[in-house]
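for the record, two folds in this file. i put them one after another cuz i was lazy. first one right below, seq on top, structure tokens after. the second one comes after a little note so u can tell where it starts
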Amino acid sequence: MNTHKHSKHEIIPCERCGTAIECKANSYTKCQCSVVQLSINEVQYISELYDGCLCAKCLFELQQEYREEIGV
């Protein structure tokens, strides 16, 4: 009996830091990136810098970077 479980989700590198992350775009609310609550302006800022998926740590750091840049 094979007890090895295969992930339904793709393991991809974070575009910013290279950390392996499990992409769950098909079930977004369960994805690790959903823990970072971004405003529409923050999403736009990040999407101008990166095209692919980012880990939650990088999303949080970019959110802080954006807020410092606009002086929040």
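(here's the note) second protein begins now
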Amino acid sequence: MPKTATTYQPHLLDPNSAQPQPVSPANGRSFKLAELYQLLDCQTVDVVRVSEALILIIDDEGKFRKPAYLNLLATYVWHQHQPEARGVDCIVGRAILCHDQQFR
């Protein structure tokens, strides 16, 4: 995987889709809160560290939605990079996988 924010293509991981969807920050560099709220269809976000450079930006209140949709792809990515999370927690709702420099 590319190590710089300028070369990493962020992806929207939607629990209702089997395929990650490429997304880009409106300004071409980093996501702002307003656009994250729109992309994730939420009002509060949280950041889950995946690796030294990659993060998942998630709907912080996704588990409280009715219905709440388990995000298998985001959970799988998280568990692959952070095995201590396996069997402990999961990601619910939409998520964006991006370089940590792409969220400012």
